[in-house]
């Protein structure tokens, strides 16, 4: 019964656009929040990786901070499945707890050296870091403006828009002289709005 | 990343980006980036037009006396278009001072507030730094500091004087509103 609900919520959350269907989205969250404690408890004790994957999605969307610790535990464990760690990082970004930033940054650096095609995933990780915000997130994104990957620099320049201070403005002004002009169409699509 | 940098600078709306954006536009060869730079410049200009712009006048009813509480009337003028929120004035100098915070001054409006001061030092030019902070409607914080020089007399001198004087530096305008 509980598992059915997890699968149902997970699928719904993956397919819904919260901006376009706010009422339905909030209804789903309300429905799920009632079971948060049980979801967290199941997440900590189950060995079923598929179910844990679904739970990561659900816990990230429900926004309950009690999920931060178990998600951090997964993210910080290098023996865990890599996709599960990645999704935990994204979920932690949605939960917005400042203490998660360092772990996501660490995971970002880990994927940077271990994955062949890490850039697209890196965008999402940078987005998670930006969503959480704070000084550490800001300094990380400013640092990424000097990354050797064109697309990472591009992502950093865009995520920095939410950090409005002199340091950021001066870094972005400097970035106007970057040799790389535009990211490719696929990545650009997410910024059209 | 030039496109992204221009995009973010336009969103942030900081006026110090205007000149570098214009400079970049002069040499930029990629059409999409040029377009984004132009858009950023327009956005920043629009935000500058809508930003609050505050200035202060200080009115005194006479010379200040050392060790005596008195009040200066601070007139804050917002001649920008947007509202200034959470306006706070604090002072630094050899005097005790208190001022009530102001929650909002709409664009095009002005407001008077009382600055209670008690000079701790005698002198013809006692320095007082006035620090003002406020926010615009996007919660961006602004601040400015200016220095004024106050004439602080002892009580006997003040009683014998017919016309008070306050010497001012910086951007502040002082309106002398009579004698006491």
Regions with little confidence, pLDDT below 50 for 5+ residues of chain B: 160-180
Helix content of chain A: 55-70%
Q: Alpha-carbon distance between the termini of chain B?
A: 64 Å
Shape designation of chain B? elongated
- Give the biggest sheet of chain A: none
Question: What percentage of amino acids of chain B are in beta strands?
Answer: 35-45%
Give me the CATH superfamily of the domain at 1-98 in chain A. Answer: Leucine-rich Repeat Variant
Task: Indicate the mean pLDDT of chain A.
Answer: 88
Summed up, the domain count of chain B is 2
Q: What proportion of the residues of chain A form beta strands (DSSP E)? A: under 5%
| Strand elements of chain B, count | 11
Task: Summarize the amount of helix of chain B as a percent range.
Answer: 25-40%
Protein architecture, described:
The complex is a heterodimer of chains A (193) and B (180). With 193 residues, chain A is an all-alpha fold. Chain A has a domain at 1-98: Leucine-rich Repeat Variant, CATH 1.25.10. Chain A contains twelve helices and no strands. The radius of gyration of chain A is 17 Å and the shape is globular. Chain A starts with a helix and ends in a 5-residue tail after the last helix. By secondary structure, chain B is of the alpha+beta class. Chain B is 26% helix and 44% strand. Chain B has four helices and eleven strands, in the order H-H-H-E-E-E-E-E-E-E-E-E-H-E-E. In chain B, the strands form two sheets. In chain B, strands 2, 4, 6, 8, 9 and 10 form a six-stranded mixed β-sheet that branches. Chain B has a five-stranded mixed β-sheet with strand order 5-7-3-1-11, with no helix packed on it. In chain B, helix 2 (18-27) packs antiparallel against helix 3. The N and C termini of chain B lie far apart (64 Å). At the A-B interface, helix 10 and helix 11 of A face helix 1, helix 2 and helix 3 of B.
């Amino acid at each position: 019964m509980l598992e059915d609900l997890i699968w149902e919520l997970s699928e719904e959350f993956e397919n819904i656009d919260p901006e376009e269907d706010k009422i339905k989205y909030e209804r789903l969250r309300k429905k799920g929040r009632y079971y948060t404690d049980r979801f967290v408890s199941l997440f900590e004790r189950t060995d079923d990786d598929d179910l844990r994957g679904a739970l990561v999605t659900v816990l990230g969307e429900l926004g309950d901070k009690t999920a931060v610790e178990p998600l951090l535990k997964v993210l910080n464990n290098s023996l865990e499945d890599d996709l599960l760690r990645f999704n935990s990082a994204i979920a932690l970004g949605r939960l917005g707890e400042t203490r998660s930033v360092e772990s996501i940054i660490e995971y970002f650096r880990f994927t940077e050296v271990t994955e062949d095609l890490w850039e697209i995933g890196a965008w999402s990780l940078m987005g998670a870091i930006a969503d959480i915000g704070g000084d550490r997130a800001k300094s990380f994104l400013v640092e990424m403006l000097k990354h050797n990957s064109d697309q990472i620099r591009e992502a950093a320049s865009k995520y920095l828009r939410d950090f409005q201070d002199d340091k950021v403005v001066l870094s972005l002004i400097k970035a106007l002289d970057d040799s790389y002009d535009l990211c490719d169409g696929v990545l650009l699509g997410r910024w059209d709005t | 990343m030039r496109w992204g940098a221009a995009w973010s600078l336009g969103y942030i709306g900081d006026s110090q980006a205007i000149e570098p954006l214009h400079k970049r536009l002069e040499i930029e060869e990629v059409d999409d980036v040029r377009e984004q730079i132009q858009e950023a410049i327009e956005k920043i200009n629009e935000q500058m037009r809508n930003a609050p712009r505050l200035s202060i006048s200080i009115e005194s009813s006479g010379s200040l006396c050392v060790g005596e509480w008195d009040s200066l009337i601070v007139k804050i003028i917002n001649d920008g278009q947007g509202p200034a929120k959470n306006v706070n004035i604090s002072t630094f100098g050899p005097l005790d001072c208190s001022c009530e915070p102001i929650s909002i001054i709409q664009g095009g409006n002005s407001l008077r507030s009382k600055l209670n001061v008690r000079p701790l030092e005698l002198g013809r030019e006692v320095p007082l730094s006035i620090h003002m902070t406020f926010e615009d409607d996007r919660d961006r914080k602004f601040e400015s500091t200016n220095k004024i020089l106050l004439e602080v007399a002892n009580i006997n001198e003040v009683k014998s004087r017919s016309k008070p004087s306050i010497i001012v530096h910086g951007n502040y305008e002082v309106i002398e509103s009579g004698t006491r």
